[in-house]
Write a structure and sequence with these properties.
This protein has 232 residues and is of the alpha+beta class. It has five helices and 14 strands. It binds fe (ii) ion.
Length: 232
């Protein structure tokens, strides 16, 4: 799948930004909400627990979250799937016990004007590594493993690709420090745009077209909230 309207998507692209959106109290409320939500995915292979931010568990917090995002992003729509009753999920909580591989979260709708992704750390330490390279096809996991490349995704599953690869060897020090969970040959030609060191109390606003992954720096578990957005 190739995304349409690439030019219109590019117009709203820019550098990643770290900002403080939520107060300490609000972060506590978000953590409490997380505890109260049902588990949607418990993926033993990826070692991750996912929960969706369902509306109406804490209506005040729902309001705060969407209005604060609106202040920062301007006109936007949530793009995190919808509930059976058609209500937007407000984000995806992601509790991981092992670092996530190289991927992009561009979604599965070729007509969507994909916009920003908001990452709000809830349990440190952790980092998200964003690469300069961007991707204008559906959500994809990047791999140089031939077997993995044969994977045929079902609807809603990430495609697999090695088209991110280039010629230049990846920086060895950077690999050792942050990316030891990824085969260094799977980073050929990749350059780091930004390493976001998670700090509770901050949020990162970043374009959805950036290829990224978690760093290997993880202390038992990390927990973050990610919200995907699109424009009208
Ligand atoms: Fe991601």
């Amino acid at each position: 799948m190739e995304i349409k309207n690439i030019e219109s998507i590019k117009k709203f692209e820019g550098p990643p930004k770290v900002i403080k959106i939520f107060s300490e109290e609000e972060i506590k409320s978000i953590l409490k909400l997380y505890e109260s939500l049902p588990v949607t995915v418990n993926n033993k292979k990826q070692n991750v627990i996912k929960k969706r931010w369902l509306q109406n568990y804490n209506k005040t917090l729902d309001k705060i979250y969407s209005s604060k995002l609106k202040e920062i992003l301007g006109e936007f729509e949530m793009d995190n799937l919808k509930s059976e009753t058609g209500e937007d999920f407000f984000g995806l909580f992601h509790e991981s016990f092992a670092p996530l591989p190289l991927h992009v979260d561009t979604g599965f709708d070729e007509n969507a004007l994909i916009y920003k992704q908001i990452v709000t750390p809830l349990i440190e330490p952790g980092d998200t590594v964003f690469f300069k390279k961007r991707w204008y096809k559906q959500s994809t996991t990047f791999t140089n493993n031939e077997e993995e490349l044969n994977f045929k995704p079902k609807p809603g599953q990430n495609a697999r690709s090695k088209d991110h690869l280039g010629e230049i060897e990846f920086d060895k020090d950077m690999h050792a420090k942050y990316l030891s969970h990824i085969d260094i040959n799977n980073l050929r030609g990749m350059e780091v745009e930004m390493i976001y060191n998670w700090k509770v109390g901050e949020s990162l606003i970043v374009d959805r077209t950036h290829i990224h992954c978690a760093s290997s720096r993880l202390n038992k578990r990390k927990l973050g909230l990610t919200t995907f957005t699109k424009r009208k």
